[in-house]
């Protein structure tokens, strides 16, 4: 299920994080007993004892100056040089020097802070985590973040960031979890996004536009969510290049056209496939019957035609098959009675002769008079700016308040 995937990503990211930070005990102390942790820490090290904490001080003071509303008083104690005691700021032993402490994490989830991100944040070069979910931050993501060569998780979801895709994230070698959802980013997605070793890409609910890149490959993403953007074009056959990693593909409401390529059936790890609310035509590729792990299949609100194939209906893990609001005209075998297989389904508003709540005969005739030839359907995919995004699960453990997701992937995780 989606939530268990989130959980596994979260655990994976935590483990990698800990490897990077090599200071598990302090993190756990921070998590379970913030005060004790800080007291303990200040016994061992003077907070201003090193140049990197001093740079962090400069960066955080610069940030404080461009925060113009902080209704929950998150930054009220951001005074003085002891940055490790600042609310939402987490220190750890440096990865390259066990004798010094550095700022390794920022967690201001749900702080409702209004303001900007200043260039000085580039001084925080030891950061592994930035969690800024659900604030009112605006402006752009500064290019100076290219300095954050250890950054592992970047979550700026549910803010008011604008501008083109923040290409600075492409320069971050350790980035594993990228969450840009629920902002106002616009324009094309860089194809390089799908050539990075990012595990989870969440870019849904922005204003990205462009076709899905014709060539997808190189990414090791297990979750890709690009829903609710204004993409166009079709899903390219190169989607098959994601077969070894992709488990959840959500392309809801992204103006997809053309037929579903049979290569979708090569994504053998897929557990969730949701292409609903698009303009996809043609049949369900029979290859989908090879998706042995598929649990959720949503094809609703498209222009699909033909037969609902038995091979899909007998998939061993299928729990919910939604294909309403299409033009399917026949259900093969057991597909006629999914209830008998314990599969939740929705088959309304199709052209299924023996089922209730179908389209009118006229509507069905009009569509079926224009058969679709998927070999002729032109696949408009972009060579350059492409459209494929994904969101990451909210990373957790380090931070006191992990972000709960209302609905695992699309929800903006409002409190
Ligand atoms: C924040 O601090 C101000 C001034 O001290 C206080 O009036 C307000 O109630 C505080 N807000 C919260 C959410 O604690
Ligand atoms: C990048 O980090 C280094 C220290 O690691 C610092 O000296 C430099 O000023 C930073 N650059 C930016 C653009 O913040
Ligand atoms: C689809 O996305 C657009 C923005 O691109 C949004 O305005 C619209 O409400 C979405 N439709 C659905 C059904 O979610
Ligand atoms: C099945 O999936 C659809 C589409 O994702 C969803 O709206 C519906 O609530 C699900 N049904 C059940 C019973 O989980
Ligand atoms: C579907 O199958 C169930 C159990 O196998 C049976 O009770 C039910 O009558 C069938 N429904 C239809 C419409 O054939
Ligand atoms: C739809 O097509 C069928 C078969 O071609 C025909 O018998 C029927 O009259 C048509 N119905 C309408 C409403 O056009």
Automatic annotation (TrEMBL):
<dbReference type="GO" id="GO:0016020">
    <property type="term" value="C:membrane"/>
</dbReference>
<dbReference type="InterPro" id="IPR051582">
    <property type="entry name" value="LRR_extensin-like_regulator"/>
</dbReference>
<keyword id="KW-0325">Glycoprotein</keyword>
<protein>
    <recommendedName>
        <fullName>Cell wall hydroxyproline-rich glycoprotein</fullName>
    </recommendedName>
</protein>
<dbReference type="InterPro" id="IPR032675">
    <property type="entry name" value="LRR_dom_sf"/>
</dbReference>
<keyword id="KW-0964">Secreted</keyword>
<keyword id="KW-0379">Hydroxylation</keyword>
<feature type="signal peptide">
    <location>
        <begin position="1"/>
        <end position="30"/>
    </location>
</feature>
<dbReference type="InterPro" id="IPR001611">
    <property type="entry name" value="Leu-rich_rpt"/>
</dbReference>
<dbReference type="Pfam" id="PF13855">
    <property type="entry name" value="LRR_8"/>
</dbReference>
<dbReference type="Pfam" id="PF00560">
    <property type="entry name" value="LRR_1"/>
</dbReference>
<keyword id="KW-0732">Signal</keyword>
<keyword id="KW-0677">Repeat</keyword>
<keyword id="KW-0433">Leucine-rich repeat</keyword>
<keyword id="KW-0134">Cell wall</keyword>
<keyword id="KW-0472">Membrane</keyword>
């Amino acid at each position: 299920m989606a939530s268990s995937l989130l959980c596994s990503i979260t655990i994976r990211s935590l483990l990698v994080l800990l490897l990077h930070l090599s200071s598990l005990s302090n993190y756990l102390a921070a998590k379970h007993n913030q005060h004790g942790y800080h007291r303990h820490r200040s016994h061992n090290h003077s907070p201003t004892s090193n140049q990197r904490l001093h740079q962090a001080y400069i960066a955080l003071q610069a940030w404080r100056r461009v925060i113009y509303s902080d209704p929950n008083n998150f930054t009220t104690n951001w005074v003085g040089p002891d940055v490790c005691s600042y609310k939402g700021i987490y220190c750890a032993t440096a990865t390259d020097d066990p004798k010094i402490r550095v700022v390794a994490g920022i967690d201001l989830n749900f702080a409702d802070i209004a303001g900007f991100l200043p260039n000085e944040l580039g001084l925080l070069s030891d950061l592994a985590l930035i969690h800024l979910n659900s604030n009112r931050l605006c402006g752009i993501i500064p290019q100076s973040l290219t300095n954050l060569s250890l950054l592992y998780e970047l979550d700026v979801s549910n803010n008011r960031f604008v501008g083109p895709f923040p290409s600075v994230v492409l320069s971050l070698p350790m980035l594993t979890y990228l969450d840009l959802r629920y902002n106002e980013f616009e324009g094309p997605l860089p194809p390089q996004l799908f050539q990075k070793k990012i595990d989870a890409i969440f870019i849904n609910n922005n204003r990205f536009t462009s076709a899905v890149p014709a060539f997808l490959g190189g990414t090791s993403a297990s979750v890709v969510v690009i829903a609710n953007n204004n993409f166009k074009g079709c899903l390219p056959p190169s989607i098959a290049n994601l077969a070894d990693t992709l488990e959840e593909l959500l392309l809801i409401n992204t103006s997809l056209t053309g037929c579903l390529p049979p290569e979708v059936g090569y994504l053998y790890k897929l557990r969730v496939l949701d292409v609903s609310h698009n303009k996809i035509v043609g049949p369900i590729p029979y290859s989908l019957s090879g998706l042995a792990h598929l649990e959720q299949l949503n094809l609703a609100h498209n222009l699909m035609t033909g037969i609902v194939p038995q091979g899909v209906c007998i998939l061993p893990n299928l729990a919910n098959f939604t294909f309403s609001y299409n033009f399917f005209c026949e259900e093969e075998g057991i597909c006629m009675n999914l209830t008998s297989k314990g599969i939740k389904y929705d088959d309304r508003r199709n052209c299924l002769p023996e089922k209730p709540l179908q389209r009118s005969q006229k509507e069905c005739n009009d569509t079926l008079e224009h058969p679709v030839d998927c070999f002729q359907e032109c696949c408009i995919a972009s060579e350059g700016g492409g459209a494929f995004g994904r969101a990451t699960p909210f990373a957790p453990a380090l931070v006191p308040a992990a972000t709960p997701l209302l609905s695992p992937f699309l929800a903006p995780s409002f409190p």
